[in-house]
Specification:
Length: about 325
């Protein structure tokens, strides 16, 4: 009887182990079905606590441990050429101003060219990426920056600059900072992937991920809160290795899609697109292949029924700008529709 009981007990253990293994495999397959596998994480406060955010359980959280309580910046009058590349508009206290980004400063001035101001990010520090957006819905734009050490390929810090104008004088609050050094950030932009009208912030990073432990470019997306950010989707990867990505509502559903330049197996490249599906992204169409794709951007053409994407492609050794439209799960060249 004892021997029989032991055998039965062993059978139960083996059966239980097999069921658990199968369940684990099913869970893994289900988690892998969503593009990139989301590594969620916790909210990061950018205005209060000075304790480190990294823990033994999750060492991939942004670090605010060395966030300065207050930091003075050089904000002095300067001459900025309004024909310099990178000039864009920004809303400051209800007034439309012009902002010009250079490697180490942002020049802000009135549209008529007067009252020019210069914001320096600091000696030995450069602006890796920048974005202008009203992230809190107050009608005034904020400046989002990725900064890093001069001479380095990737950045280290994420800044939110809040601007005010009093009597024609511009002031900047720059105490909102998060260290992203472990993420190797190379791009910052805003988006609305779920179509709720509330912007998210996306960082292009170069790092490993929990489900894809090799160094690679990845798009991370965070929800914005009054005093911090929290992960919305930290994808392990897109369908293929990619060079760059933007956000645009290419299918007119009221939400932004990811649009990326991806590497094909034969060495060529294609533009691919993904829509948010609640917990991850799903591919919704890609372009045909090109020898090379140098850059992508939203089309600024007026009067179009849908948002187009412009891509600078290489055709027979020549650069050519084409316009892509999302149509029936494909990104078609506009002239071919």
């Amino acid at each position: 009887m004892t021997v029989k009981a032991v055998k039965n007990h062993s059978f139960v253990i083996l059966l239980t182990a097999a069921l658990l293994l199968a369940a684990g495999l099913i869970v893994f397959i289900l988690s892998s079905s969503s593009l990139g596998n989301s590594d969620m994480g916790s909210k990061v406060d950018i205005t209060g606590s000075t304790e480190a955010c990294n823990t033994a359980e999750d060492a991939d959280e942004p670090d605010e441990s060395d966030k300065p309580e207050s930091q003075e910046r050089d904000l002095t009058a300067a001459k900025v050429n309004d024909t310099t590349a990178g000039v864009r508009y920004i809303q400051v206290a209800g007034k439309q101003c012009i902002i010009d980004f250079d490697e180490s400063f942002a020049g802000i001035f009135i549209e008529n060219g007067s009252d020019i101001y210069r914001y320096d990010v600091g000696e030995g520090t450069v602006i890796v990426s920048d974005c202008i957006a009203d992230i809190d819905g107050d009608g005034a734009d904020e400046i989002l920056l990725i900064t890093g050490d001069a001479g380095q390929e990737y950045g280290s810090d994420f800044w939110i600059l809040r601007l005010e104008m009093t009597g024609g004088e511009v002031s900047v609050s720059d105490t909102d900072r998060i260290s992203l050094k472990a993420f190797n950030p190379w791009k910052v932009q805003t988006c609305d992937v779920d179509g709720d009208g509330m912007p998210e912030v996306s960082f292009g990073v170069y790092k490993t991920s929990r489900f894809h432990p090799v160094m690679a470019k990845r798009p991370f997306i965070y929800d914005l809160h009054e005093n911090g950010i929290s992960p919305k989707w930290r994808g392990s990867r897109l369908s293929r290795p990619f060079d760059d990505y933007i956000f645009s509502d290419i299918n007119s559903d009221g939400a932004d899609e990811i649009v990326s330049i991806e590497h094909l197996a034969d060495g060529r490249k294609a533009v691919n697109s993904y829509a948010w599906k609640g917990f991850g992204f799903e591919g919704i169409g890609e372009s045909c292949a090109y020898d090379d794709i140098l850059s992508i951007r939203e089309s600024e053409s007026e009067g179009e029924s849908v948002q187009a994407i412009e891509a600078c492609v290489m055709v027979d050794g020549q650069e050519k700008w084409i316009k892509l439209i999302h149509d029936n799960d494909v990104l078609l060249v506009a002239e071919d529709r």
